[in-house]
Input
Amino acid sequence: MNVADLAVAFVYASLFVELVAFPIPSEASTWQLLATRSDAAVGEALVEARRRPTLTKFVCYAVPTVVGVVAWLVPGIALLWPALRELANVPSQATVAAAVVAIAIGRGLTFTSVLQLRAARRAGRTPAGLFRRSRNPGLVGMYVCFAGLVLASGFPVLWAVLPFYIANMHGRVRLEEAHLVARLGSAWTGYAALVPRYLPLPGLR
Output
């Protein structure tokens, strides 16, 4: 295996370890959040989503999720099915180097945020560390890692999926935060006023 293949394999191995050994239960699944039509004490994004017809919910949430999962799996499938690599470009050394950096940063951000969130939940306190700079540091890490995965695998078509993946996850974040408004009230709104949703940069707050 070359460096690019090793980087791709590392992504899946680290994701497996994270999901099996360090799972973080979500506040509520998207379908749980959409299951009720109650509009009481929830954010506008969730109220609007709950009012949509069932078919619209399926198209808006289930289909993009399937597309995103498939996109994440393509580089791994290519490792096991060499014929699929005929659709990919051979990345240059500079591209592979950029991919390794992006994957390392992305996985580092996500795994660190997982450990910090688990520690905070065990202690019954508000998460600190990365969560003082971003409300969703783990997701930022996943975005960066996906970009590195695309670079390492050489499948340019996956760049077309990235905006849809980000839009889908952003929509889910807005639903979860609308739920947190109802659950935590001023504690959440005060935190959200101080800490950006993603990064302290214009357009990412």
About this structure: The chain has one domain: 3-20+29-194. The mean pLDDT is 89. The helical segments are 3-21, 30-35, 44-50, 54-80, 93-123, 137-153, 157-184, 186-194.
